[in-house]
Design goal:
It is a single chain. This protein has one helix at about 1-25; strands spanning about 45-55, 65-70, 75-80, 85-95, 100-105, 110-115, 125, 125-130. It is built from one helix and eight strands. By secondary structure, it is α/β, with parallel strands linked by helices. Helix content is about 15%, strand content about 35%. It has a domain at about 45-125: Sandwich (Immunoglobulin-like), CATH 2.60.40.
Length: about 130
């Protein structure tokens, strides 16, 4: 009887471990049997889109809002320019057209396009904003 009492906690521990292993297994997930890092994603069809935002006098505009719109999906992302007026959007798909706009309080907004027919990596779009009158 004493041996059975000692084996019960061990048996419960083994069954609990088997249940956890079974519940966390995903049939679509294949283990990495080579114990090497996962392969890097293919970035051959990706590019960065970057540029600088300045005023009419050539001064860099910090904290200007730059928005990028994917013209295929309509998705919009935004960022703020740094102290040197620079902005960057990483890993945008090269086969899609984008609309990029720059705006800041007290200035008229400007919009430009990056098309799939522009193969440059990275694509550079600089903006010059005019002060509102």
């Amino acid at each position: 009887m004493l041996k059975a009492v000692r084996l019960v906690p061990l048996l419960m521990l083994v069954l609990a471990g088997a249940g956890l292993a079974q519940s966390s297994a995903n049939p679509n997930e294949k283990p990495n049997v080579f114990l090497q890092p996962e392969p890097k994603p293919d970035k051959s069809r990706m590019r960065d889109i970057k540029g600088v935002v300045k005023d009419a006098n050539g001064n860099f505009l910090q904290s200007a809002t730059v928005r990028i719109k994917n013209l295929k999906t309509g998705n919009i992302a935004a960022t703020q320019t740094k102290a040197d007026g620079s902005y960057i959007f990483y890993d945008e798909i090269i086969d899609i057209d984008y609309e990029i706009s720059a705006a800041r309080e007290g200035f008229d907004p400007v919009t430009k396009r990056v098309t799939q027919y522009d193969p440059r990596k990275p694509a550079v779009r600089d903006f010059e904003l005019q002060a509102r009158k």
